[in-house]
TrEMBL record:
Residues 47-137 form the Methyltransferase domain. InterPro entries: Methyltransf_25, SAM-dependent_MTases_sf. GO terms for biological process: methylation. Transmembrane segments: none annotated. This is Class I SAM-dependent methyltransferase. It is an enzyme of class 2 (transferase).
Length: 262
């Protein structure tokens, strides 16, 4: 990812550590687990977690029996992830992976594409993932949806604030979201463009999965996630809707999967 001074300052506040571990962010985490567990090879297999933050995904992958190496450009993230049992963590950039060709069974990019505003950089990151994964191996990338900021600012009650509203609609126009609160930009994908980026990286036939559906916008989503039975029903409901084309843009995030051609 592009580690600007603003990006580094944001992540060094350690705000990423709890994002998927509490509140409605758990819906994104559990849905990511749901999709990946259906697509990953059976453990033990080697997974490269690129831009893996403090290890929120590496932790459950290791618990499932995978051999996980995490790469991240933020020293605090590398330190935190490296303290997790069974996780190997070191610095790394998604566009220049410090890993041999065909050395992983799966490569995950569950964050780096958010911070690569230039299409050429995103294709480079995906091309690097293709190089590192074995023939037939899985490449998975998360993207933020183009319309997420409009939906989220209304959900959070921030849409009435002119700077927030202007930034959200700017992202709809060109994909670049300049957060008034954090001072750095992120890239928000149109749901259709990620397939072309995968193809240009030598990963044809990419499949897209809506992670949260509309459920992340529900006011009582936290209550549903706290209740094991209601949580199961919600996850099952979104699994049934995850690949409906007309609903892909409603999710906050997409997960896109492809396999390196043999």
């Amino acid at each position: 990812m592009t580690v600007t001074r603003e990006v580094r300052a944001y992540y060094e506040q350690d705000r990423e550590h709890g994002r998927l571990r509490a509140g409605r962010g758990r819906l994104e985490l559990w849905r990511t687990q749901d999709v990946l567990r259906r697509a990953l090879p059976s453990p033990p297999a080697r997974v490269l977690d690129v831009g893996g933050g403090t290890g929120v995904h590496a932790e459950w992958l290791v618990a499932d029996g995978y051999e996980v190496e995490l790469l991240d450009p933020i020293p605090l993230h590398v330190e935190r992830a490296g303290a997790l049992a069974g996780v190997t963590a070191r610095p790394g950039d998604a566009r220049d992976l410090p890993a041999p060709d065909a050395s992983a069974h799966a490569v995950l990019l569950l964050g780096p594409l958010y911070h690569l505003a230039d299409r050429a950089d995103r294709v480079t990151a995906l091309t690097e993932a293709r190089r590192v994964v074995r023939p037939g191996g899985l490449v998975a990338a998360a993207t933020i949806n183009r319309y997420a900021a409009v939906h989220d600012t209304i959900h959070l009650g921030l849409y009435t604030q002119e700077p927030e509203r202007r930034a959200a609609h700017a992202a709809v126009t060109d994909g670049v979201m300049l957060s008034p609160g954090h001072g750095f930009s992120a890239y928000f994908h149109d749901p259709d463009e990620i397939v072309g980026e995968f193809a240009d990286a030598g990963l044809p036939g990419a499949e897209r999965y809506g992670l949260e559906g509309a459920f992340w916008l529900y006011g009582d989503v936290g209550d549903w996630l706290d209740d094991p039975e209601r949580r199961r029903l919600m996850l099952d409901a979104q699994r049934a809707l995850e690949r409906v084309p007309s609903l892909l843009g409603v999710s906050g995030h997409l997960l896109t999967l492809a396999r390196r051609p043999a």
